[in-house]
């Protein structure tokens, strides 16, 4: 009976910005332990298995398909095929392949309903990859009950417990997995448990041991990816760049390594190389973290050049003494009045603002596609846009109404003009300070670890 191999969990790389590092640290567990176990390659969330290993993986899947066609009642063949599909789906982010994986694993369970711990572990890995962690925990407990000496089953159990916030139980499961089989995957999980507890030195030491124990290019690539991430977190982008480059030599085209190298290039002030690596990662797997990283590096649009008349000062220059200019002064009653935005225009602007795609909506849609819930993702994005449009429209109408009232009683509120003017001047700075304070608080809380 072919036993599936267990991957190391995957993590997304973080950039040099402290707030982004804090946010990604909180999301690290979701990504790291969502990968599951068994035949999954130890790559980053979800990672592209490209380069030289891709044909071999495809050939292996095709060989398993031939096997189940010849032996349609073999539960072990169906479970192995299901795990191969899970790995393939994680590599390509293809929701249809997740469905094939579920079908194959369910077929294995139908052929052997009791004691089929390989298929049960596979189902746990599948649910973890789809972020259904409660279901993953149920399957992992069934697998460990059927075979308490299965290291992959202990790994899936640890993944689900971590995602559900039960850290002490997950640490115990990782320890059991390491005791049963201290391979590259187990050591990678152990490394992450120490990273969660804030012991970066211990985490780096265990990940180096995982690298030494790596038996496949994908295991080696994963360990180097995580080591590069740790180097970036500790302010050493040059080492991160070298580690990512070494990993890409072992597994060319790996999206996780490309992301790690892109973030190292960014930290070193090399945006052109970073854009190239992010673009290559997106081409392999259009995942949210790669798209957002690429978007952050895109140059901002330059403001249009002023008109020649404006540059020469003939339009905006004040009238000199003796120059009877007929340009209207903004404070004169005979000058053109500033036209306010109409209510119809505000409604149109609100609807347009709600329909404009946003990074948050893009992340939601891509996440839904990756989880096989495309229709639900589209519905969420539509609801998000409609809600934003209604909110913007109502807020604009309220402000217009308040402005009209204030202007109608200008004489009564004349003494309030100066305080409101000062408030308008310090408002942006106060808002920025508030955002900075909240970000610093989140960063400190994230740096304090899970406890």
TrEMBL record:
SMART domains: TPR (SM00028). Keywords: Membrane, Transmembrane, Transmembrane helix. The keyword Membrane applies. Residues 341-414 form the Urease accessory protein UreH-like transmembrane domain. SUPFAM superfamilies: TPR-like. Residues 328-337 have a biased composition (Basic and acidic residues). Residues 306-339 are annotated as: Disordered. The chain crosses the membrane at residues 20-41, 346-370, 376-400, 420-444. The keyword Transferase does not apply. It comes from the Bacteria. InterPro entries: NiCoT_RcnA (IPR051224), TPR-like_helical_dom_sf (IPR011990), TPR_rpt (IPR019734), UreH-like_TM_dom (IPR039447). It holds the Pfam family DsbD_2. This is Sulfite exporter TauE/SafE family protein. It comes from Streptomyces brevispora. The lineage of its organism: Bacteria, Bacillati, Actinomycetota, Actinomycetes, Kitasatosporales.
């Amino acid at each position: 009976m072919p036993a599936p191999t267990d991957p190391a969990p995957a993590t997304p790389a973080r950039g040099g910005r402290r707030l982004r590092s804090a946010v990604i640290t909180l999301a690290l567990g979701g990504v790291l332990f969502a990968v599951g176990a068994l035949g999954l390659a130890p790559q980053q969330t979800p990672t592209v298995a490209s380069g030289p290993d891709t044909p071999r993986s495809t050939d292996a899947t095709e060989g398993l398909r031939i096997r189940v066609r010849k032996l349609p009642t073999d539960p072990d063949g169906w479970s192995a095929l299901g795990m191969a599909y899970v790995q393939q789906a994680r590599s390509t982010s293809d929701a249809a392949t997740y469905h094939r994986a579920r079908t194959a694993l369910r077929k294995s369970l139908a052929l052997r309903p009791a004691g089929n711990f390989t298929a049960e572990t596979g189902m746990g890995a599948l649910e973890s990859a789809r972020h259904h962690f409660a279901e993953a925990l149920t399957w992992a407990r069934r697998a460990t009950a059927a075979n308490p000496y299965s290291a992959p089953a202990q790994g899936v159990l640890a993944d689900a417990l971590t995602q559900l916030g039960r850290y002490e139980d997950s640490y115990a499961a990782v320890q059991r997995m390491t005791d049963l089989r201290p391979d590259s995957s187990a050591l990678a999980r152990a490394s992450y448990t120490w990273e969660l507890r804030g012991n970066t030195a211990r985490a780096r030491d265990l990940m180096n041991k995982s690298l030494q124990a790596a038996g496949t290019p994908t295991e080696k690539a994963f360990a180097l990816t995580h080591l590069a991430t740790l180097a970036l977190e500790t302010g050493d982008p040059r080492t991160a760049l070298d580690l990512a480059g070494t990993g890409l030599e072992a597994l060319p085209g790996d999206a996780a390594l490309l992301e790690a190298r892109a973030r190292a290039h960014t930290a070193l002030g090399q945006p052109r190389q970073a854009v190239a690596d992010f673009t290559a990662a997106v081409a392999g797997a259009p995942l949210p973290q790669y798209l957002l990283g690429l978007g952050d590096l895109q140059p901002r649009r330059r403001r249009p050049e002023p008109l020649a008349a404006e540059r020469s000062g003939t339009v905006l220059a004040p009238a000199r003494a003796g120059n009877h200019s007929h340009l209207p002064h903004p404070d004169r009653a005979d000058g053109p009045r500033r036209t306010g935005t109409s209510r119809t225009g505000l409604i149109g602007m609100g609807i347009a603002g709600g329909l404009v795609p946003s990074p948050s909506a893009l992340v939601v849609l891509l996440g839904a596609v990756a989880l096989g819930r495309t229709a639900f993702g589209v519905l969420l994005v539509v609801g998000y846009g409609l809600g934003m449009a209604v909110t913007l429209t109502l807020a604009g109408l309220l402000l217009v109404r308040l402005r009209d009232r204030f202007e109608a009683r200008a004489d009564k509120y004349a003494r309030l003009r100066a305080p409101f003017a000062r408030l308008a001047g310090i408002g942006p700075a106060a808002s920025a300070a508030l955002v900075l304070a909240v970000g610093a608080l989140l960063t400190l809380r994230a740096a304090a670890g899970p406890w």
